[in-house]
Specification:
Beta-lactamase; disordered N terminus; alpha+beta; 34% helix; 12 helices; 19 strands
């Protein structure tokens, strides 16, 4: 069984703790509902990860690039015998995420029970705009240190016309001045690139995000370019057949980031509420995670879209009290509608699989539907 990056990155921090943090009165309803359900007790859980390990196959379609490596256009392992809850869910996800039309990476952890599942969880996928979660977290960490503030103002960074690959960094000009709080809201809820690059400039560029990720112990995620550069030079490689290690993450690394942010490992309660609250108000990706969830489910998420790739990552709360950190990266599938439908299908399978699961008895009151 392959090691699960989330728990490997947590090594040295001790047993994974699921703690409810104090929430200010003005906190978003996502945090209020999450924390009210968890109460104040610290709960010790024993992770039991289940990973669907792919069988690598040669890929004759890889595009050569000095930064890219051929992707094992992988075929997930045969479905496991339906001998238990975890095996059934893992087998179902392997079927949904079969790479017949492009690579699909999935990782999910039920933070209530410690149960985990992944498909191609350790393969890099394009961060796209899901990386904005890490950018905002880096800025908020500086706020907690007293080196930045939410009221400080910075200019939106507007891209200037430039040819693809004509420079290491795409040129930008300063635009309207906005507070950091407003920039964060635009970057997360509307995935605004100009606001995101404003925050990047304020913290010192992509290298500052990488430093923060390293400090947090997140392995398998890094940012190399500004958003303007990433968008301008998009399409250099086909992510369905080729792994580009720049501006990439593994699904498991993203789940580690989401889980740690939710648990308050790196940010103050106030900064945590700013980020998770904005994710709760996310307006993009209505046909992705949100399309698969019933009205009673709570979700805070962030989408990502580039050429031939779509993604959605976030934290979901089920009515029966399960908190799920989930990352889905989809390439190919014949177009954006196909990618979004696949994200919704995977979300639905995980939501139905984890809802009703009873920790400690190896069973579920509901099995993942086929």
């Amino acid at each position: 069984m392959a090691n699960f990056t989330y728990y490997r990155t947590m090594a040295g921090l001790g047993t994974l703790l699921l703690a409810a943090l104090p929430v200010p009165a003005a906190a978003d309803d996502l945090e209020q509902a999450f924390d009210a359900a968890l109460g104040n007790a610290v709960k010790h859980i024993q992770p039991r990860p289940v990973v669907v390990s792919p069988t690598p196959a040669p890929n004759p379609y890889a595009t050569p690039s000095p930064y890219a490596t051929p992707s094992p256009y992988a075929t997930p392992a045969p479905a496991m015998p339906a001998s238990g809850y975890e095996n059934r869910l893992a087998a179902q996800l392997a079927e949904i995420a079969a790479p017949r039309h492009g690579r699909i990476g999935v990782a999910a952890t039920d933070l209530t029970t410690g149960r985990s599942v992944a498909v191609l969880g350790e393969q890099p996928f394009p961060l796209a705009s899901t990386g904005k979660v890490a950018i905002v977290a880096t800025y908020l960490d500086l706020v907690d240190q007293g080196r930045r503030s939410l009221s400080a103002t910075y200019p939106l960074m507007i891209p200037l016309p430039s040819a693809k690959f004509s420079s290491t960094t795409a040129p930008e000009r300063p635009g309207t001045m906005l507070s950091a709080e407003m920039l964060i809201e635009r970057a997360i809820t509307r995935s605004n690139n100009h606001a995101t690059d404003a925050l990047l400039a304020a913290i010192g560029g992509p290298i500052a995000v990488d430093r923060w990720l390293h400090k947090a112990g997140i392995i398998g995620m890094h940012l190399d370019r500004t958003i303007a550069t990433l968008v301008r030079d998009d399409g250099e490689v086909n992510p369905a057949t080729t792994i580009d290690t720049r501006d990439s993450t593994t699904p498991q690394a993203m789940v580690a980031l989401l889980a740690g942010l939710y648990e308050g490992q790196w940010l103050s309660p106030t900064s945590r509420d700013v980020l998770l609250g904005a994710m709760r108000r996310c307006q993009t990706g209505v046909r992705r995670m949100r399309a698969a969830l019933p009205d009673e489910a709570l979700v805070g998420h962030k989408t990502g879209t580039l050429e031939n790739t779509s993604s959605d990552v976030g934290i979901i709360r089920t009515p029966d009290g399960h908190t799920i950190a989930l990352a889905i990266y989809v390439t190919g599938q014949g177009g954006k509608p196909g990618r979004e439908q696949r994200i919704a299908s995977i979300t639905r399978a995980i939501y139905q699989g984890y809802q009703g699961y009873q920790a400690g008895d190896g069973s579920s009151t509901r099995t993942a539907s086929r």
